[in-house]
Write a structure and sequence with these properties.
Ribosomal Protein L22, Chain A; two-stranded antiparallel sheet; alpha+beta; flat; 2 domains; 7 strands
Amino acid sequence: MTGPKLNERSFVAGERTGIRASLRGSRMSASKARVVLDLIRGRDVVSADQVLQFTEREAARVVRKVLASAVANAVNNDSLEAETLYVKACYADEGPTLRRFKPRAKGRATRINKRTCHITIVLGVIEPDLLAVVQARRERAVTGRRAGRVGGVADRRARVTKSREARATKGDESTESTEIESTENDTVVDTVAETSAVETPVAENETTATPDAEETN
């Protein structure tokens, strides 16, 4: 899917559909770029940039540059704040195909199609009601709480630290228990040795006393 385009509807002449930036002739196929564009369509600029930052695709790096260019156009040309923008539309059109040939057996050749595409990102301004919701969500994502559970970067960092401390404490306890078990085993071994040393003379006395009893009889 190419995604919704703003030029697919009839609009009033001279109406501006949004702040845009485009990259023409990118050396990748349009289908690869559309996979990444589908991830950021309709998102606010901040979350869209985060998604592109952690997307492991080559197209994500290119699309992120186009998004940064569109934000710069909005900030410098229209004096808008980057936090109030969202991705209104984004699409990739097919560009000219570069045809190359690879030699094959028996004097033949195979054609290689090197695809290109044109990437376009259009930004719009978030409505005031939705902007308050988006800003509150960002604050909760950093330091706040969401739905009664701990959330945010700071709280996540605190949970990781607490988990590491608990793991270290557990490791110390297991070491102490191992030392106690080894001490108990040594004590049992010593007790068994002492018992065998005490019982051995008694057994010898009994064996020596038996012939005397027989002679007396």
